[in-house]
Specification:
This protein has one domain: Lipocalin. The protein contains three helices and eleven strands; from the N terminus they run ααββββββαβββββ. By secondary structure, the protein is an alpha+beta fold.
Amino acid sequence: MSSRARAFLGALLLLLAGCGGDSPTELQGPPRPLPARFQLLGTASAVEADGTSISCNFELIFELTGNPRESPGVLEYDGAGGGGLTRTIFDATGRGISLQPDAYAAVVVRSLAPNRIEITTPISVNSESRFWRELSHLEGTFDSPQDVATGSWNCAPFDISSGGYMDTKYTARGSWTLLPVR
């Protein structure tokens, strides 16, 4: 091997060795601090082959408490969130139901480097209702330098069939937007 090839190989090995210590998180930058209060607005809709229409929405407010726990690439916050949700199902003849629960629960919110967010509602993770399980973990991405994030969600059935009320079949795919509340 020529001396020029050895020098090039040596420089390449030094460069690779210098890069080896950096974790992907360190290369991406730190996680984004989150606003103490934010709003989550979500919508979802679908029309099934049998003519059944599903429309859903939610408007939730979250308040984060205390200082976040820090680990490499993660800021983890405790808090609470609540608000109103709606799921409406109409069959092809226009008959159906609209379910409009209010919700309030403790949450864990994680800001992940460099621009992702996860919102978890621990009490709903093991719910018997697919509706609440789907909302128990939301993931999104900050799309701009402002504190605005977007993500997707599934508006699943409440899994009820009682007293003439039935919601056991259809899921609508939708999106949500996170906006800071100042």
